[in-house]
Amino acid sequence: SGNYYNQGEIRKKELEQSCCALGIPASDVTVIDHRDLPDNPAVEWDPQLVATIVLEHIEANNINLVVTFDAGGVSGHANHISLYTAVRYKYCCFEILILFLCAGCRVFVLESVNLFRKYISFLDIPISCLLPRDALFILTEEETEQAKRAMWCHRSQLLWFRRLYVLFSRYMVVNSLRLL
């Protein structure tokens, strides 16, 4: 629920505002508030617990596409890495593999890049186009501005380095994905 620094309620509201800026209604936002899944950049979550929650959400909402972090978590955040580990854990289990194959559900992971590439914004587009990947999303100028507006909604999290992220990160302009 984003309760790091005891800001869970504030961050839930910011998430709803951010989703609204992206055109996602609050009714389509699910916030997990589980005592064994603390919002803490140093805590790795139990992959089986997270995988179970993700699988239940996939089944309940008839989801056919999942996008998650890769093993690097984009920023090295333990919670982000735990999401990848959980999806990979479940994806490698027979029951989820059958579900994904039968439902046509695909799983993509967002590629983590080195610090230099991470902060060269649109200049990373040619590099990303040349490198192997399964999907590449390049945002238009309008989409980039919309993404920035959505990120600015997370005011409680906008420390100096996150402000730099919003201004200069390639992830605000280009995202490369690989199939799991």
TrEMBL record:
Pfam families: PIG-L. InterPro entries: GlcNAc_PI_deacetylase-related, LmbE-like_dom_sf. GO terms for cellular component: endoplasmic reticulum; membrane. One of its GO terms (biological process) is GPI anchor biosynthetic process. One of its GO terms (molecular function) is N-acetylglucosaminylphosphatidylinositol deacetylase activity. SUPFAM superfamilies: LmbE-like (SSF102588). Gene3D superfamilies: LmbE-like (3.40.50.10320). Its EC number is 3.5.1.89. Belongs to the PIGL family. This is N-acetylglucosaminylphosphatidylinositol deacetylase. It comes from Calyptomena viridis (Lesser green broadbill).
